[in-house]
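Q: Could you write out the predicted structure for this multi-component system? I'm mainly interested in how the pieces pack against one another.
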Amino acid sequence: MLKSVVRAVGAAVRLCPASASTARALPLSCPALCAPGSATTRPFTRSLWMLSNSGASSGFRPKLFSSKVLSPAVSCGCGGLHTEGDKAFGDFLTDEIKEERKIQKSKTLPKMSGGWELEMNGTEAKLTRSVSGEKISVTFNVNNSIPPNFEEEAEQGQQKPAEDEPEMISTPNFVVEVTKQAAKHSLVFDCHFPEDEVSHGEGEEESDIFAIREVSFQPEGDADWKETSYTLNTDSLDWALYDHLMDFLADRGVDNTFADELMELSTAIEHQEYIRFLEDLQGFVKCH
Amino acid sequence: MGVVLRNLQKVVPLRRARLRKDIDTLRHILGVQKFDLGIICVDNRKIQQINNTYRKKNIPTDVLSFPFYEDLRPGKLPCPLHRDELNLGDIFLGVEFVMKQCQEQNLDLHGALTVVTAHGICHLLGYRHETEEEWAEMLQRENYILSEYNRLTGRQLEPLMKKCSQDR
């Protein structure tokens, strides 16, 4: 019980929306529960890690160990505090990093088919390509892109074999920006991987692989989302118009194949960033 | 609600707007515009799985229909009492299977999907082809639908039943 509650809290922390200052990337953060397709996946192995901290976004403050401030601490002259807890933490991180590296499929990121160029800015990825004078860019952020998937495990209440563990797939919201030459505004699609209806056994998911949530015109290259632009919400849209919008994206290389590859890429980036974070954390905890 | 269109596969590039327009034309011909209809496009793996689950046939196929009304007399439209009964059911289109057939026979994919969908809607409306009599009745209905479709669109589509084996 405690385990599930703690993990739920961890999930809640991870679900906090990205900072508002994030450039045009992701106005809404609402990842899907599970994702179809053949995206590169890896098993859920962060359980212990999630129990040991309050989430990546909260920043690490060793409160549990802070009581040791009053007890004798080891000092090596680096100006930092070193406790027994820090040592245990460092050892734990060493094992965790080793495990994560073991399940990392490749050190290099998977390539997107269709001539997309990848540009990284921290956890934000931008894919761009040009088609007959039009520029198409797709932006996504791997932060908060892995949906929580704890329900079944909590119900089971027992350790499952490693191969049966749920897989971690990154399903980020993504923004497609289509820019035509000589046009003042770009057409911007806010897309996401829909939450599948929970299905047991049959696996009959009924959602499209990806869906358009909103469409609007935005000033070209402008980093800030202009809230005053009319925004077409697809919840109550004429379906024929929706289909034309989907065909419009498909003609520009954003189709189900693209979405599937994007999941694979995002999963690999997220994992890479996670390992990097663990390494930074280890370096911070350990003596410099 | 109308037609709920879902594309769950990535093998076949589909034109959603074209598919919806063709399905709307079929609904118009059959006079079933007020009924909801689900069209789900899937690959071979998925349709084989569904075929195996519901028909114990572990092979991919072109179309599987799941009628909302299971005991309709062929040709009789349902008489729903409530808004949520304005539903014909769901049709799973094996678009990968259909595409392979089109490649072999040099046919237009969306034309073939229209033919297959017409077949599926007939099943939702109570038509069967388990006996010779049923087969003839269903062929006649498909002939009518596609001749109307051809008249409205200028295309030249032929019923699936013409080459349909009895075990479909």
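A: Regarding packing and overall arrangement: The domain at 100-146+167-283 of chain A is CATH 3.10.280.10 (Mitochondrial Matrix Protein; Chain A).
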